[in-house]
Amino acid sequence: MTETYTLLAVCTGNICRSPAMDRLLAQVFSAEDGIGVRSAGTHAHVGDDMEAQMKDRLAEYGADTADFQAEQLSVEMIRSADLVLTATRGHVRDILADVPESAQKVFTLREFVRLLDSLDEATFDEAMAASGTAAEKLAALVPLVAGRRDHAQAPTAQDEVVDPYMMPAEVFDESFDQVRGPVEALRDALQR
User: Fold this and answer.
1) Other Cβ atoms within 10 Å of 111 Cβ, number
2) Could you state, in order of their start, the residue ranges of all structural domains in the chain?
3) Which H or E element spans position 167?
4) DSSP secondary structure string, 2-35?
5) H or E element at residue 75
6) How many CB atoms lie within 10 A of CB 192?
7) pLDDT of the residue at 113
8) CATH fold for the domain made of 5-191
9) Counting runs of H as helices and runs of E as strands, what totals does the chain give?
10) Among 54, 72, 95, 141, fewest CB within 10 Å belongs to which?
């Protein structure tokens, strides 16, 4: 683990799904020292603000929407991150094609929370008891969650966040809910 535990959220354009992950995770960890959150896109709209419809949903939720600029995902970002959470399995494949050694720390957001939920209670409790800060808890949980990949249900479309780009408002609602729910579940698990 680096001095600052870094969470990296990834989608395609870095203007809808990963900014939502970024800002909701940043809200969850705002009171925590030693955790940094950032986002990037595999085909980013570099320099653009997040989509207005996603920004509206984040603001309504109470998350900070100021000063966002889309960034292109780089190999260095992946290597320096402690946990990479993506919108889709396609993003996971793209990352692993470029940085195969990152397999143990790259998940879709929804897959990570599903696998976290599949940990047996004793294993989870032991990891939490040995960890004080949120960063230490995440550092303890990531290898346990990665280890569940061989034992839990294989990834499916249920592990993905729908892309709302240039879609109607209801698709933005669905996409935001598919980010919000897992982020809240992660927050609640770390507070147990």
Assistant:
1) 27
2) 5-191
3) none
4) -SSEEEEEEESSSSSHHHHHHHHHHHHTTT-TTE
5) helix 75-80
6) 9
7) 96
8) Rossmann fold (3.40.50)
9) 8, 4
10) 72
Indicate the DSSP class of residue 48. Answer: P
**DSSP string for 101-159:** GGGGGEEEHHHHHHHHHTS-HHHHHHHHHT--SHHHHHHHHHHHHHHGGGTSPPP-GGG
Q: What is the pLDDT of residues 28-79, one digit of tens each?
A: 999 888 999 999 999 999 999 999 999 999 999 999 999 999 999 999 999 9
> CB atoms < 10 A from the CB of 186, how many?
24
Region of poorest pLDDT, from 81-85, 146-150, 173-177: 146-150
- The predicted model scores a pTM of 0.95
Q: Tell me, rounded to whole angstroms, the distance of Cα 132 from its chain centroid.
A: 21
Q: How far is CA 38 from CA 77, 78, 111, 151, in A?
A: 9, 11, 19, 30
Burial class (CB in 10 A: 0-12, 13-18, 19+), 76: exposed
Residue 80 pLDDT > 70, yes or no?
Answer: yes
pLDDT, average across residues 147-168 = 88
Q: Strand, coil or helix: what is 61?
A: helix
HSE-up of 64 (CA within 13 Å, CB side)?
12
